[in-house]
Write a structure and sequence with these properties.
The protein is mostly helical. The protein contains 6 helices and 2 strands. A hairpin with a 4-residue loop joins strand 1 and strand 2.
């Protein structure tokens, strides 16, 4: 399943608890969806999420977005991902937070740069290689 698919559409199952890779995958995918693609902007038909919306609130919004992005990195750490992968993911969140904090230009940047989607792709690549049983097959 590609990170860009709306996999949550039509699903009513609660998110699983636990540290097994499948549970972690579902939580990360749900959070990425919420942060990056949960709402469609009328008129331009572009999906945005809480990261862009909350980022409109100066300082506090960017800190909340950064904390949620770092939660994804923490979940990746629990999967046993390498320090290099975790560093890349942390850099994605840091870059998003730093540039997103710039007034006006940062808000446009948040609309275009999706650090959580980038991090999800890194995690899915890891899961597909090390935990192939976590793949969700659409049928």
């Amino acid at each position: 399943m590609a990170a860009g698919q709306d996999w949550m559409q039509g699903r009513e199952m609660p998110l699983p608890l636990g540290n097994d890779p499948m549970a972690v995958r579902r939580r990360i995918e749900a959070l990425e969806y919420l942060l990056e693609r949960a709402v469609t902007v009328p008129g331009i038909n572009r999906k945005v999420g809480l990261d862009a919306i909350v980022g409109l609130v100066p300082v506090a919004g960017d800190m909340i977005s950064a904390a949620l992005g770092l939660y994804i990195v923490w979940e990746a750490r629990n999967l046993g991902m390498s320090k290099w992968q975790l560093a890349r993911m942390t850099a994605n969140v840091g870059f998003d937070t730093l540039v997103g904090a710039v007034p006006l230009a940062g808000d446009l940047f948040d609309f275009l740069y999706r650090s959580n989607s980038r991090n999800l792709k890194i995690i899915l690549k890891h899961l597909d290689k090390h935990h192939p049983h976590t793949r969700i097959i659409e049928g």
